[in-house]
Request: fold
Amino acid sequence: MRMKSAGYMFLAVLIISISGLTGLAFAQEPAASSAGDSSTKLIGAGLAFGLAALGAGVGLGYVGSAGLAVISENPALQSKVFIFVGMVESIAIYGIVMMFIILGQ
Reply:
């Protein structure tokens, strides 16, 4: 059930982002500083960070629940669980970095 709603959420984000690109005029010369360029950058940056955060959130849910189960069985493995949680959260950090790279161009 959770994956089905995540699929609908992804489809909604995809439709909204594509609908923002439909206002292009093909009969005009491009202006020196077109507003379309900045809007596509904003959409791309938002998608980069939003999808990375969504993936990190889903992954953190699985890793966190499994990590709590491991820690309750053997508390000595707590440091290894923290390493795995940090690896999952690094996906969101990569999304933030890509967002700043896209906006900086």
User: Anything to note?
Assistant: The longest helix spans residues 35-73. Residues 60-105 form one domain. The CA atoms of residues 57 and 89 lie 8 Å apart. DSSP finds three helices and no strands in the chain.
